[in-house]
Amino acid sequence: MKLVIAIVQDKDANRLRSEFVKAGIGATRLSTTGGFLKSGNTTYMIGIDDQRVQEVLDLIHKTSRTRQQFMTPPVNIDAQMDSTSGYPVEVQVGGATVFVLPIEQFHQF
Ligand code: 2BA
């Protein structure tokens, strides 16, 4: 058994949830925040038998889009106390960031 942790964009999260439901795949959805953009994203935790891991990855791949987003770097204050606000920079986000971990034990009490 494996634990798939998938970080997806909020805009893709509902379509992915529908795919999981259709396929009878159990998943837990967490509201998360990216450390870089500091904007919301969605993390799914999916416990799944080894032979269905590829199916889960295929569904994530199918539903996750790459998007361009703008972020404004934080304001810099130099030694003269002059502040400069950075120009917005364009960042490519996604499709999805996925980790697959082994599960030592699985219990449902
Ligand atoms: P964020 O940390 O908000 O990052 C959003 C996008 O900003 C990233 O998209 C990447 O294109 C860019 N980015 C991130 N850090 C950067 C940096 N130091 N310099 C320049 N650009 C940077 P993705 O790579 O598609 O990542 C989307 C989200 O997945 C991330 O949101 C974060 O929540 C998660 N993530 C990505 N890599 C991760 C990792 N190694 N461990 C845990 N979570 C990760």
- The SSE string, one letter per element, is EHEEHEEEEE
- Label the overall shape: elongated
CATH class: Alpha Beta
In the CATH hierarchy, what is the architecture at level 2?
2-Layer Sandwich
Strand content: 35-45%
Sheet/helix structural class: alpha+beta
The whole-number mean of residue pLDDT values reads 92
Rounded Rg: 18 Å
Portion in helices: 10-25%
Q: Return the CATH topology.
A: Alpha-Beta Plaits
Low-confidence stretches: none
Organism: Secundilactobacillus silagei JCM 19001
Pfam family, one: CdAMP_rec
Protein name: Nitrogen regulatory protein P-II
Q: What would you note in describing this structure?
A:
- This protein has 109 residues and is α+β, with helices and mostly antiparallel strands.
- It has one domain: Alpha-Beta Plaits.
- It is 23% helix and 39% strand.
- The chain has two helices and eight strands.
- The strands form three sheets. Strands 2-3-1-8 form a four-stranded antiparallel β-sheet.
- It comes from Secundilactobacillus silagei JCM 19001.
- This is Nitrogen regulatory protein P-II.
Q: What is shown here, in short?
A:
This is Nitrogen regulatory protein P-II. The protein is built from 2 helices and 8 strands.
Q: Which key terms come to mind for this protein?
A:
4-stranded antiparallel sheet; binds ligand 2BA
